[in-house]
Amino acid sequence: MYQLHEYDTSTAMNTALATAIGTDLQNAINLQGKASLALSGGPVTIELFQILSNIQLPWDKVYITLVDERWVNKHHEDSNERLIHTHLLQNKAKSAHFISMTTDAENPYDGVEEISNRLHQHLPLPIDVLVLGMGDDGHTASLFPHAANLSKGLDMHSHKIVIDMKPLTAPHDRISLTLPVIVGSRHLYLQLSGAKQEKIFQQALDGNDTNDMPIRAVLQQHPELEIYLTQ
């Protein structure tokens, strides 16, 4: 069963989550000499990134990538990579290695192979720590409800590390880690904020259709998911 950690403020929640992530990364480094971290984007992650950037770690042994990315220029206001560079790869964390999820290809379909090869070459796998978010439509990563490629992204028998995605309800084409890579992470966290997201999460728990709410696929495949929630 999933573990729920509730906090009164976003700062308290992000501080606790950052501390847990730091501990997981240090343990991975102690065991294998390096660690991997996959992060989601969006404005809700900014405070988490800022707190993480000040945690004392051998950051030069940490390899960071994204759970998903919008297919935009890295300087675009909607770029998750821009958030990582602006808010995380600073302070103590500026020596961490970042692995981009975009290429110069015109679309994510044409960039999938290059990104897959890049992640296999540079990212320690399985991923040591992965942090998910959830949208109001029940999507997680860039695995969107009823998207044409969703079934391939959720295929637990797939050997793909990333998949291209065209959301029906959100702007920009996307690229996303696949479900088997996500749930294969050694430590998996879900960050939720507010009563609305808590209600949507409860709706996910109350049903089974992963096409309607892809977050259900994570819950079904990784029941030990740790949830960090702030009101």
Task: Please provide a written account of the structure.
The longest helix has 23 residues, at 10-32. The protein has eight helices and ten strands. The chain has one domain (3-230): Rossmann fold (3-Layer(aba) Sandwich), CATH 3.40.50. Helix 1 (10-32) packs across helix 2 and helix 2 (46-52) runs parallel beside helix 3 (80-88). The model has no long low-confidence stretch (mean pLDDT 96). It has 231 residues and is an alpha/beta fold.
> Unreliable stretches, pLDDT < 50, 5 or more residues?
none
User: Would you tell me the overall average pLDDT?
Assistant: 96
Q: Order of SSEs, N→C? A: EHEHEEHEHEHEEHEHHE
From the coordinates shown, what is the CATH architecture? 3-Layer(aba) Sandwich
Distance between the termini: 22 Å
Structural class: alpha/beta
Assembly state: single chain
In spatial order, strands of the major sheet run 1-10-9-6-2-3-5
Query: What is the overall number of helices?
Result: 8
Quick one: how many beta strands?
Answer: 10
Largest sheet: 7 strands, parallel
The proportion of strand residues reads: 15-25%
* C-alpha geometry: globular
- Domains (count): 1
